[in-house]
Amino acid sequence: MTELDKKTGLYIHFPFCVRKCNYCAFLSFSADEGVRREYAGALMREIELAGRSFSGQISTIYLGGGTPSVMDVSLLSLIIKKVRQCFDVAPDAEITNEANPGTLGIKDRVVRAKLTAYKYMGINRLSMGVQSMDNDRLHMLGRIHTAENVVRDFDIARELGFDNINLDLIFSVPGESTEDALDDAKKIIALGPEHISCYSLQLEEGTPFYEMAERGEITEVADEEDRGTYHRICGLLRSSGYEHYEISNFAREGRRSRHNSLYWNMDDYIGLGLGASGFTRGVRYRNTSDLSTYLAYYGGQDADGAEWTTERPLDEIHENTDFDNISEAVFTGLRRTEGITYEEALAAYGMSPQKDAAEQFWKIFRDAEDEAKRFADQGLLIIDDAGLRLTEEGIDISNSIMSLFV
């Protein structure tokens, strides 16, 4: 991989959780303090090696998981310090930490101390996996916190000066009504976060919920009810002053997630840590998801010979073609409320902006044009002189529309 000559994002994965939630299909598992410490050492080695390969400026840092907030603050501090030593981090970089309720501490003073340490490290955005404000639903989901924990942790974060907080909400939980979901949303809105991420629960293979559904113990919410709930929540959030800027994301003015926007804008981001994905200079990759392999390469006795090249342990690597780039640009761009312009799409294809951008775009996607226009005639897709975007109704079948361009 070659050096970057522009701003990019940095994603760092922490695969550890207190316990895995019933719906979670992410790479995460429980581990003792010794394993987490060993992982931190290996991660810092990967940061050091990766930093030698890039010269651009880091505009966003996202600490995700798993649950980064289960990490000892001293280890997290060392990791962020290593990032600053090895990368050129922009002075105004957005630095997000997923800090889930229930992992910040049991007592108020512990929560306050942990969040104070985060501020000292330079973390300026918190993303909290609330998911529900109903304790029975939280228990069903397998979350370890209560609604009371959410309110307390949020209030303490505010007291300490955190002015950019995201709260996650899951709806269409088996047994949950639309009114239940709206009640959750209202309670989250009442806290006043700058950003809300709102996701429909999906029964992912390999999760306890999937197995429970297979045994007939729970029933997935019907599509019609799920979509009805989604649109009512969207309306509630918009009427409460949140901009609906991406299918699942809502923000106060000026508070869009800068890091997540990298993904939807086809910008570069470096993925570090177990199973982390990255996209740099048209190359997509995913780090090994095997912990022993990762620790042996970056933290074992042979780590001195490790290099951050394509020979490092990866589960996947793919060099995009020009068509891959434009296809992904349209797919991710359609997730944004404003959609994608022809010029943006052609830029991903390697073409300079030109007067006949629409004509050039549809030449590339000539096989998709007729079907796209049928979706437009049905009021599901807007196609104009600038580009294309989904309507609110089109979001319900977004995957079908996006797949035209893959």
Describe the structure.
- The chain has 406 residues and is of the alpha/beta class.
- It folds into two domains: 8-264, TIM Barrel (Alpha-Beta Barrel); 322-405, Arc Repressor Mutant, subunit A (Orthogonal Bundle).
- It is built from 15 helices and 15 strands.
- It has helices at 33-51, 73-86, 108-121, 135-141, 147-159, 178-191, 208-214, 223-239, 258-264, 291-299, 322-333, 342-349, 357-364, 366-377, 398-402, and strands spanning 8-14, 57-65, 88-98, 125-131, 165-171, 195-200, 243-246, 249-251, 269-272, 277-280, 283-287, 314-319, 340-341, 381-383, 387-390.
- The protein has a nine-stranded mixed β-sheet, with helices on both faces.
- Helix 11 runs antiparallel to helix 12.
- The longest helix is centred in the N-terminal third of the chain and has 19 residues, at 33-51.
- The radius of gyration is 22 Å and the shape is globular.
Distinctive features:
15 helices; TIM Barrel; single chain; 41% helix; Arc Repressor Mutant, subunit A; nine-stranded mixed β-sheet; 2 domains; disordered N terminus; globular; 406 residues; alpha/beta; three-stranded antiparallel β-sheet
